Amino acid sequence: MTYRKVGRVVRYENGILISVSESGEAFEEDGVFHARPAVEGTAQTRVSVPHSAGADLDSFVAKTQANVAQTLLSVRSGRIERFIASAGTAIHETNGSKWTEESRRVHISLVSPPLRALIDLASFDVEIVTTVADVLARAGGERDAPKRLRLAPNVSAALLPSLIGELAMEQSGGGFDGHGRPIETRAVTHDAPPNWYRPGYAVRPVRAWMNIRALPFGRVDPEVPLAIALLEPVHGTSLRVLCIDGGDVFPATIDASHIAAVSRAEPVWYPYAAGSFGAEMML
Fold first, then answer.
1. Cα(231)–Cα(110) distance, rounded to whole angstroms?
2. Domains in the chain: boundaries
3. 214 with 199: CB under 8 angstroms?
């Protein structure tokens, strides 16, 4: 089984714009994984990115510059440590399946020494960035974690892969996995996932639950303090977060192994692991 990918991505990173086109293939032979660029003119390269997709990516350059300028102004000078935005279109082909995928990604780190807030998004709607920056500027010293705490969707999405098998959740159906197999809606369990995740053509695919979401239950108390942003990458179910409690803002390290409630509001997709839907949760 050979996997082929052809695509283009435009990436903005800290003032530099890069446009990359690639065409590659991957396969396994005698237990050895091979990945290589597709040779120009061979059957492997006969798929091509639609012209309209290329035009959309060209327009992304101008839009990104405008978005960056707007974000820098709204977040106050000096607060953004790292800003990466990308948009891409790719065509995948493997195991008799062929599909087109479009992606939008944003990664931002905001600093207010000694704290750093991390934000990852799958859209160019950066309203949360302004909110976190304003809150971060008011942060005080470290505190113990509140007995009850809400997790904002951008925080819960990062946690969700660590709760597989421990919290009722489902894999959301739609699209194809790294082996060209349909992704079907089904309960997420401790069992081996039925689908394969392929982060790129040069990486061997691994079994993974795709596009997971927690099933809603209980009641989230809106008066409970809120963890609005991650201050470090997730370590299992241990999270270092930026908390808001009334007018107080402070960092805290929490154990998020026990979830008391999951909001019934429509969840939002975030680019964690093989895809994770974030919804407000309560510990």
1. 10
2. 3-124, 150-282
3. no
